[in-house]
Design a protein that fits this description.
Layout lengths: L3 H8 L5 E2 L6 H10 L3 E6 L2 E7 H9 L15 E2 L4 E2 L4 H11 L3 E6 L2 E7 H25 L5
Parallel strand pairs: 1-2, 5-6
Antiparallel strand pairs: 2-3, 3-4, 6-7
């Protein structure tokens, strides 16, 4: 089974983050710039939280808070669920579907090394299934098996 580390190695992504003391405008600008829907909140090399587009919309806009004067810390999900890079994709899919999460920070020895999204997992699992089907079809054709 494919591990989160293998997936992250193929993604070749940089970690997009902000600090708890930043105002809400910074993570929104980072989301737009990097075309992502969540930003990790990191302070002193430690994962403190995660902030999503939904957090900003529901906890700031609907609450009619001023984004320039609202800190990330007051809106973020503190101490988010994270996985080790040794987890396999099925484990992550189980966690994400069971907890209704779209993003999982990935840690190596308590240090953030990336983030995987539900889209990353689905895309990779579909690729793997397609590859398995192609292999089976080649086997069947190569051995003259008919239905």
């Amino acid at each position: 089974m494919i591990t989160v580390k293998e997936l992250l190695d193929q993604k070749n992504q940089s970690i997009v983050s902000c600090q708890p003391s930043d105002n809400i405008l910074l993570p929104l600008e980072l989301m737009r710039k990097h075309k992502v829907r969540s930003i990790l909140v990191i302070e002193d090399m430690q994962l403190k939280g995660i902030i999503t587009q939904g957090d900003c919309a529901i906890r700031v806009l609907l609450a009619r808070l001023d984004p320039e004067h609202t800190t990330v810390e007051s809106v973020m999900t503190a101490h988010p669920l994270a996985v080790d890079e040794s987890y396999d994709l099925d484990q992550c899919m189980g966690i994400m579907s069971g907890k209704r999460l779209r993003h999982l920070p990935v840690l190596r020895n308590s240090e953030v090394v990336g983030v995987v999204s539900i889209g990353d997992l689905v895309n990779r699992l579909v690729e793997d299934q397609s590859s398995r089907i192609a292999s089976l079809e080649n086997y069947i054709i190569g051995h003259g098996i008919t239905y």
